[in-house]
Amino acid sequence: MKLKDKLWNWGHLEGSHNECTGLCCHMTPEDFAKEYGIPNAFVVSYGGNIKPPFDAMAGRLSSLSEIKWSVLGDASTPLPDAELGNTEDILAILNSTQNVTGGVVDDFFSPERMKRFPPEVLKKIKTALNEKGLDFWCVLYDHQLDLDLRPYLKCFDGVTFWIWECENIAKMDEYLPKIVSLAEGKKLMGGIYLWDYDGKHNCPMDARLFEDQLSRYFAMVKSGALDGVIFCSSTVGDADLPTNKILKDYIEKYGDDTVL
Prior knowledge:
By secondary structure, this protein is an alpha/beta fold. The chain has 10 helices and 10 strands. An 8-stranded parallel beta barrel has the order 1-2-3-4-5-6-7-10, surrounded by 4 helices. The protein is globular and about 45 Å long.
């Protein structure tokens, strides 16, 4: 397998981040895959903009290699009424699509979401997905590493880890042992932002910090320490950003490298 086969897009719908970034971007998740050579995507509702039934959206994304679909969307997406979130809606599209391989809950570790979806409910979601050959993922941020989350994390097959404040990328040596310990042998992907979304900044990502994180995570994928790298997001993929150029250069240079 090649390194580029382990790369993922955090696939919000086109234009989802224009308001928060002030950019005017129109790149779709499928066009991001073509432009950057990133074949896989987490498809996640932003502000409730991906609603069931998912058949039409799944058809749009049929050219992607793998998709992990959101059981719960981002923090601004209203929680579904169903006990298992959008699990049944995801399972409903499996007969018409071949590339959905998992589900994900975004922005999960908040009091509201943890209360609504306690471990016993998460286990039901995991079982329902696993029975159809799908795995179950969550999002974990650096500022949540010291919380007592193990009862919840046990309910997932995989963890995606994100460093929210860009200056904290310098703490990777501190964070990575913690996340590996918390993951307890589960699948693990590292998330990288193409834009600095933190409220203190909300500006283009620091190019040096971005490249430091990118280089580190690519090496970890090649060694087998990470199962993949996720980029947030296609929503800024057509912006004139240093991070986009660096990402393209790295994929061109290292994308065909063999992964252990």
